[in-house]
């Protein structure tokens, strides 16, 4: 989760030279930022450095990254007719060639050391940014669309799905060996809205990506769905066509396993703030987490991204503790 980030001094140094989205558009810079965490820590996979908001950009929306504030859309979607401003979703993949180049370059430089994960934001999460014009604590404007403009909302979510499918297939064609879909704003929807406006599109992305990979003669790759604060939908997510369900730290591992059954892999879910604890305590928390999840169909991870003020030494302690306790679990 956010392996490459501001918590690393070398990341801040590399990023200082240019603005955020210029960095995203430079395959060489993305490759370097992707590889930095692997030089420091014995991680088991690399995650391509990019951003979920390159998709709205490719659809023709202006997005800037405001230091200290986060992403900003100067002209968000306000009315139904604003959807006419969006480009044809079929052209999105051709606009995002720089992501594919970054993936191919990084695969070459990794030379088989670890697999490379590609990703995208899920339709509802992308819609929230496009309507709100940035981050929001309530998502009230985006949810207003769901209640007042349900048809236009479905139209927008369909456009986003149609853009995401070729984008994710393109990532695999470029060399991504697994895909993660981030429904970061799932928690703003209750079960009813989630089942109506998020889940159908999450399902559709997985179904269509798999079908298109088959059509293109490409080998299937594992797909991961991470719906933050979506604990109310774990059963549904486990049946949405993904091999892995990512969990945030608010979900008890044993309850999650009961919800999803034995055939789906779980990923997660240490509270990222646990990395503020002493290295000794991090080791204890990791041991507890691994014991709770057990050794089968499980990928150890944080329950959300790393924060900029975290100590890289403590990230290293987390990774080492996972490897150490994994070995002990498997031996027993």
Give the secondary structure arrangement, pairings included:
Blueprint: H1 9-15, H2 20-24, H3 27-40, E1 46-47, H4 54-58, E2 64-66, E3 70-72, H5 92-95, H6 97-110, E4 116-121, H7 123-132, H8 140-148, H9 150-174, E5 178-183, H10 191-215, E6 223-227, H11 234-238, E7 244-246, H12 253-260, E8 265-270, H13 279-293, E9 298-302, H14 312-331
Parallel strand pairs: 1-4, 4-5, 5-6, 6-7, 7-8, 8-9
Antiparallel strand pairs: 2-3
Helix pairs in contact: 1-3, 3-6, 6-9, 7-8, 7-9, 8-9, 9-10, 13-14
Organism: Gorilla gorilla gorilla
Pfam family, one: URO-D
Keywords: Cytoplasm, Decarboxylase, Heme biosynthesis, Lyase, Porphyrin biosynthesis
Contiguous helical run count: 14
Low-pLDDT windows of residues: none
What is the straight-line distance between the termini? Answer: 29 Å
Q: What structural category arises from helix and sheet content?
A: alpha/beta
Strand segment tally: 9
